[in-house]
Each structure stands twice: as structure tokens, then as C-alpha cells.
Design brief:
14 helices, 340 residues, disordered N terminus, three-stranded mixed sheet, globular, Cytochrome Bc1 Complex, Chain D, domain 2, mainly alpha
């Protein structure tokens, strides 16, 4: 198995005032206009519920746009709520941080394709509810889109909009659009985006736009979970691509994860054999260092349950089949703690 895996791997500022709170409430509610369109179902009992945040079963209507221009620190751009909500026009607060976006990334194609950069952000770093694409190999990105199109890559929670929307979006892409998006995101340089902290307590969170936001002033035991929240909820709602995340992980999970990664899964193949010794990727195989640990746990779970069954999945299957939820948490905590 070792030789087969190895051969396969190597072959391929703004000052906030009282308006800050009203913007948070207004804009958070506004994003629900899009995200809350899916039906909500009770999660299956074997799903890691904390890794698959589900919106409340009922939400208030989105706040109307008052026409005021919103701003974020370090940017000379300004956008209304309507502009921030526009799925066919990425609110690009920092256009100097990245190369010019191709049409499919910046604006999509009405009515079939939403702008790729709306969810994955102009810098490709993404958010916990979706994937970080910055610096991934272009062939890998194209292969994942093809897997979504063919139905060989799905989601354990079909009623979670971020994944189901990706599946829907993929089916309308032309080959040229797929190539443009893949080449763009592959050209971006990833940077530290998630600050991993071991802690026995975490903020109490509520779910909005399929992600966790901290509830002010409340905390609870972490238990067997990873709790990933934005560093600044206001900038998260504004879709500021410079505002990262904090991931709270159980004490000792980083060291345990390093041992699992170095030792390998049940077949004893270290993760670095395919993903590189620094976990920054090898050939067409993606890097996993510095990525959202919530996202990583979902991928491990979906490989384990055959929900991801596209190309290269056969190499992952024996590595994840014996992992417990605690193992997944530890592996994700260690990988996320590394420099991307």
C-alpha cells in the first residue's frame, strides 16, 4: 500500500460607533435572504452536528437596505447592503490584494452561475462553511468541480446551502469558466487565516448564514468539538477578505493530531506521503495545512462514509476508515495549526 500511495502521489481605521451594532444585526439578517432558502431537516444521529452548523428553522425577513454606505478598516471601498448581498458581484474591499478576477469569479453568469468569489472570497481563503482554494493545484480544483458535476462528491447534509449551492453551481459551468476559476485560485498565495487555540471553554455560539457566531458574554465547555468563529463578526458579515477566524480545539488535540498525521491511519501510511511532509501539498494532491478545521473534519467524515467518492478517494478510504470523531478533531486541529 505504501508504495502504491507514494507512486500515485508523486505521479500527479474605521472607528465603530452605535452604527456598528445596527450594521451587525442588519447585515447578518440580510445575508439570510440567500442562505435561508433551503429546507431545514433534523440532522442524522451519526453526523458530527457541531461541524455542520444548521440555520434556525425560522428566521426573520431580511432587513431592508437603508442605502447607507458601509466601510471596513484599511479599505477605500464602500458598499451598500444590497451590494454586499449581491451574489453576482463580489464585494471586493481590497482589490489590491489579489490579481484581477476573471468574470466567473467576480460576477458569475446570470442566472446560472453565482460569482465564485462571493463564497470563496477574492483572496480564495474562504470561510468555515466552504473551502479555502488559495494555492491549491488547478488540476485538483477542476477535478473537484467535475466530481460535483458527476455526483461523486456530495455532502452529508444536503439541506446545508453552502455545499448544495456548490453542487448546483458546478453543473452550469462551462469548461472555459472552470479553467478560469481554477487557474485564478491556484495563482493565489495562501496566508495564515485560522488561529487555533486549545481551550477547555469556548464562546456560546449561534448559527447565522450556516456559520457559527459568538454570543456576547457567554461561554461553555468545549466538549468533543471544534468551535470556529470569526475574529470580528461585523467584518465577517461584510465579507471582508482580510478578517480571519479563531478555532477553539480541545486541550491536547494538536499533539495527538501530530502523532496521528506522522504515524498514519490504520494502514500506517503517514499523511505526508500524499499531502507532503509539511502538509502543503504534493503534485496534484492538495495542501491541508492552515485550512479551516471545521471544513477538514467534514471532509474526513465524508471520505469515511463514501460521500466523497471521486478521484483519489480510493487512496483516502483506508486511511480514514478507522478514525473516531476524536481522531478527526485532532488531525484537523494539528493541520489547521500549521503555516499554509
Amino acid at each position: 500500500m505504501w508504495n502504491a500511495v507514494t507512486a500515485a502521489a508523486k505521479a500527479a481605521a474605521m472607528t465603530y460607533s452605535k452604527a456598528r451594532l445596527s450594521w451587525t444585526v442588519c447585515a447578518t439578517t440580510a445575508l439570510w435572504l440567500f442562505y435561508c432558502s433551503a429546507a431545514i431537516a433534523n440532522p442524522a444521529p451519526d453526523i458530527l452536528d457541531w461541524a455542520y452548523p444548521m440555520n434556525p428553522t425560522s428566521v426573520p425577513p431580511p432587513a431592508p437596505d437603508d442605502g447607507a454606505l458601509r466601510r471596513v478598516p484599511g479599505s477605500d471601498q464602500s458598499f451598500t447592503l444590497t451590494r454586499i448581498r449581491d451574489l453576482y458581484g463580489v464585494p471586493d474591499w481590497h482589490p489590491g490584494d489579489h490579481p484581477p478576477m476573471p468574470q466567473v469569479v467576480a460576477r458569475g453568469r446570470k442566472p446560472a452561475i453565482y460569482a465564485c468569489g462571493y463564497c470563496h472570497l477574492p483572496n480564495g481563503l474562504g470561510r468555515p462553511e466552504n473551502a479555502s482554494l488559495a494555492g491549491l493545484p488547478a488540476p485538483y480544483i477542476e477535478q473537484q468541480i467535475a466530481d460535483f458535476q458527476r455526483g461523486t462528491r456530495g455532502t452529508a447534509k444536503p439541506d446545508r446551502v453552502p455545499a448544495s449551492l456548490m453542487i448546483q453551481n458546478s453543473k452550469g459551468l462551462t469548461n472555459a469558466e472552470m479553467s478560469d476559476a481554477a487557474e485564478y485560485f491556484a495563482s493565489l498565495v495562501p496566508r495564515p487565516w485560522v488561529h487555533v487555540i486549545e481551550s477547555t471553554t469556548v464562546p456560546v455560539t449561534h448559527v447565522s448564514a450556516w456559520a457559527r457566531l459568538p454570543t456576547a458574554g457567554e461561554s461553555e465547555a468545549i466538549g468533543d468539538r471544534i468551535i470556529e468563529v470569526p475574529e470580528d463578526p461585523v467584518l465577517f458579515v461584510a465579507r471582508d477578505a482580510r478578517a480571519g477566524f479563531v478555532a477553539y480545539v480541545p486541550p491536547g488535540s494538536i499533539a495527538k493530531g501530530e502523532d496521528l498525521v506522522r504515524r498514519g491511519g490504520v494502514d500506517g501510511v503517514p499523511c505526508g506521503t500524499c499531502h507532503g511532509t509539511d502538509l502543503r501539498g504534493l503534485g496534484p494532491i492538495p495542501g491541508i495545512a492552515g485550512r479551516s478545521p471545521s471544513y477538514l473534519v467534514r471532509q474526513l467524515y465524508e471520505f469515511q462514509h463514501g460521500i466523497r467518492a471521486g478521484s483519489w478517494s480510493a487512496l483516502m478510504a483506508p486511511q480514514v476508515k478507522g478514525l473516531s470523531p476524536d481522531d478527526m478533531i485532532s488531525i484537523a486541529a494539528f493541520a489547521a495549526s500549521l503555516e499554509p
